[in-house]
Design a protein that fits this description.
single chain, alpha/beta, Rossmann fold, 2 domains
């Protein structure tokens, strides 16, 4: 089975290479960033230190790693390798701390991973959320290097529970820190005994962000503001419909990807003037449409909004809904939440709105403005209750 996995992985990398040659910008950046894999090497001064490797897929997943990283750095003995699969994380996250070593995750070929593990010599490895690289895991198992998963969410029909080779690698993890009790129960029913309750560390980071004093946006008019967070290119028509339905509102648009092609799709669809966040002077906005063309700022700007539509819910699933909710913002998402336990829980508890079709969004926003299901304070208190206790994990990793 691992042979078939390796074959699929090899085919995937070939497809990325072809896409890069054909001019796909993200594929080119992904490929070019991995040309230097053989040069990865443990810094000489890290000898004898606790070398913890933390892997996040992208910028978004690293938001879940941030509270863990901050806590680990409190121990002067810890040194952190931080790897990314996607350019969105590697290119947009910068570390000045000499105790952090950033790099792209090498291609998951057994030979490449073996060389990388031997060169870096990690003492422990942490995977954030859904990062299952099975050649990597197999080598960690063989070399008796402890590895952990955090905010893990597993469904009963997961292929990893049906294929014995993959299930064995998960059972060999030193700790599976589960996203919720449902995942813990599923793993327990399948014979796992390395389970720990945990949660979603994005909540910790979102609550920490509230403490930062970010200047408010100064709109041309003080009407309600609708945010479109992590908006996919396929969702641009939804944004256009809302701008027509609410012409007097302010509109805060944050694309999921900020490459030139994604930005062009948004700006070419607009029928009105717009401002770019990177070009604002003293947060003064001369238009009713503001496009966030930077990463990392949206989580603060939600504070100025009355309603947030978070993208992704009409495709694979919604992106981060915690950031607007932490500010008490009424939040709407699309219907694909089967594999998103936090979204399911918050819907059940009445803290988010879930629509079945894009055409329902305007009516939903009207309802929110007139009679919200929860007050902003109730939403903030609910998110605060879901804060994750990190101490048990941090103690184990730092030991």
């Amino acid at each position: 089975m691992l042979f078939l996995y390796s074959l699929v992985i090899a085919l995937y990398y070939v497809m990325i290479r072809i896409a890069a040659l054909l001019g796909h910008d993200q594929a080119r950046r992904w490929y070019d960033g991995r040309r230097y894999e053989p040069a990865l090497k443990m810094p000489r001064e890290w000898e004898g230190k606790n070398r913890i490797w933390i892997h996040s897929a992208s910028y978004g997943e690293y938001e879940m790693a941030k509270p863990i990283v901050a806590k680990l750095l409190e121990n002067p003995r810890n040194r952190l390798y931080i790897s990314f699969f996607s350019p969105s994380g590697y290119e947009n996250l910068h570390f000045d701390n000499p105790r952090i070593y950033k790099f792209y995750l090498p291609k998951d070929y057994r030979s490449r991973m073996l060389q990388c593990i031997e060169n870096l010599a990690p003492t422990k490895v942490v995977f954030i959320k859904y990062e299952f690289w099975f050649n990597f895991l197999g080598l960690l198992q063989e070399k008796s290097i402890p590895y952990y998963f955090t905010s893990t969410h597993i469904n009963r029909d997961s292929f990893m529970l049906k294929i014995s080779a993959f299930q064995s690698l998960l059972k060999s993890a030193t700790g599976l820190y589960c996203h919720n009790t449902d995942s813990a129960k599923i793993l327990e029913d399948n014979g796992f005994n390395n389970i720990h309750p945990f949660g979603d560390t994005r909540i910790n980071k979102a609550l920490e962000n509230l403490e930062k004093n970010i200047p408010k946006l100064q709109w041309i008019q003080s009407n309600n503001t609708i945010a479109y967070g992590s908006l996919l290119s396929s969702e641009v028509p939804i944004m256009v419909l809302m701008m027509k339905a609410f012409p007097d509102y302010n509109h805060l648009v944050a694309p999921h990807d900020i490459d030139s092609e994604s930005m062009r799709k948004i700006t070419s669809a607009l029928e009105t003037g717009y401002s770019l966040y990177s070009e604002l002077e003293r947060n003064k906005i001369p238009h009713k449409v503001l496009i966030i063309n930077t990463l990392g700022d949206l989580k603060h700007l939600y504070a100025d909004c009355a309603v947030a539509y978070v993208g992704g819910g009409f495709s694979k699933g919604p992106h981060s809904i915690i950031e607007p909710l932490a500010h008490g913002v009424q939040t709407v998402i699309g219907p694909h939440i089967k594999h998103y336990p936090m979204a399911r829980h918050l819907k059940k508890e009445g803290y988010i709105y879930v629509i079945d079709t894009p055409n329902q969004l305007a009516e939903c926003i009207e309802k929110i403005i007139s009679t919200p299901i929860k007050t902003s304070q109730q939403i903030i208190e609910k998110i605060g209750e879901m804060n994750v206790t990190l101490d048990p994990l941090i103690e184990e990793l730092s030991a």
